[in-house]
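Instructor's aside before we start: the two examples that follow are unrelated to each other. I chose them only because their records fit on one page, so don't look for a connection. First example below.
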Amino acid sequence: MSVSANAPTTVRTERAHAKVNLVLRILAREANGYHGIETLFQKLALHDVVHVSVGSGPRRLSCSGPTMPSGGLGPVERNLAWRAAEAYGAAAAWDASWQITIEKHIPVGGGLGGGSADAAAVLRALEALCPTPVGLPRLLEIAGRLGADVPFLVTEHSRAWAWGRGDRMLPLPALPPMALSLVVFRSGVNTGAAYGEFARVREARGESVGAYGYVASAFKDWSALVTIAGNDFEQVVPGMHDGVRSVLPLVRDHAHRLREQGHAAIGMMSGSGATCFVLHPPAVELALEVPAGARVVRTETA
């Protein structure tokens, strides 16, 4: 279906929430080269703002905001938000003209899912604007082809256990808000390179891999989550990123000291990096001294 030149422009604004992975286990590499994962997603209050309009005029994507890299984000056709809009149009057989504007507040390339969140927000916006919406199951299918974080970020859930390529999910009840002190860097970590290095190290060690087993009570509250939190990428990313190598021990130490004081606290890296963080009770004042080239961003769970 096409939008006529005389049709009124329709606009939709969506919040694109960042995420952290409180658990991230890398499973076997599939025949096509992709790795399966097991992960616990947690959305954050930190978010980009995505505006989508449908009407006349050429298709357009523009990005601005305080976390935009000085060199930009590269060709728009390779941007995940652009690809999401094209994929949605193809799935809905909707030849619309759309314009997308993204206000960037999530640090770019830091394992916080900013690009995936923007793509998910575009999918939600187009689903709301489309005269023939495709429905949530198809929307999740489209999201799954775009990246492992996108299906979760399409949903309204604040946290979920996901596996496969992130497209199989078990939504979990929201927990009371916790604060996060994120340590972000000027440069991130290439996700493909991190997976490649992890596969190389695993092969060199001769390690076998299988799914982990978790009891349901491990997800019930923050104190229980402390016992299972972990990220397989922490085995290789410190060797790929100087900032992670220096900051990861720092956030682990802060979390350890908070736990000794009786608080639920987690110190780890999110996704394939490079962002490291301490999750802690909101009432706790946390003073993080970080090296040059890093900065601290305060937020909380969504």
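Example two begins here.
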Amino acid sequence: MASVVVTGVTGQDGSYLAERLIGDGWDVHAIVRDGKHADEQEITPGVTVHAGDLVDIASMRSVIDVVEPDLIVNLAGISSVAQSWSQPELTARVTGLAVSGLLAGAWDLQERLGRPVRFVQASSSEIFGAAEQRPQTETTPIAPISPYGAAKAYAHHLVGVYRGRGLFASSAILYNHESPRRPETFVTRKITRGVARIVNGDSTSLLLGNLDARRDWGWAPDYVDALLLIAEADAADTFIVATGVEHSVRDFVAAAFAAAGISDWKSLVELDPRFARPVDAPIMLGDNSKIRETLGWSPTLSFDETVHAMVTHDLELLA
């Protein structure tokens, strides 16, 4: 049985990935911050949990040495751009520097065992910042405009460094992807939960920041499928994972209200400057040609279907 170490297993992508890996027969191990794993509801059944912390590189490397995995998938880190502005130093350590420890651990294990150890990094479209090229490709210049993007860019470059050294190290440049498991700290889940509360009579309005930002939104389980294809590819590489279709936050709001049967929603939404980011990339749109042609990946759910699934879930939670 092949073994894998996953970081970020309690998050949206981590939970879907753990379910897929277990279903495929992998021996799944997870590095979880001390004490966090006490809540068994957050851990997919069948996952072996190891206490560790991204800011404690020695603890992560210790888990790698004990488990001796065939594959390491790094999904952990501060994933909120907004949070990265309030905690830039922590973001640098958790989202950027921690990856150096994981890569070094994978390399040292490969050298010790004399067999390949694969590594997949969840990179981000935020590394491109306010890119002039649209859609972005794997060769688009990396020019982040947020602490989160900068930390992800450092990790992304380091994956390439280790790939050049001989480690099977791949980066999946993930564009925005959503599901009912997305935390409410993200604007998409805030929208769908807010719409559900309005429908349920628990709220009268939805407070948001910038409605004009445009993003390439996909369905999270599809993106987990892409991670697995990248992990099992013949050669390590960098792949953009995106739908190739852009929508504004306003479009997301409209789709969410439509899913709840509300067409006239503008009076229900209020703009609040507290929720606006200091700097925000206006448009992010990815070209998925490479992963389509090389690995045969394609998204299965459309934008409207993704939003509908989230709203339906949130309405059921309040029923």
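The first strand starts at residue 3 and ends at 7.
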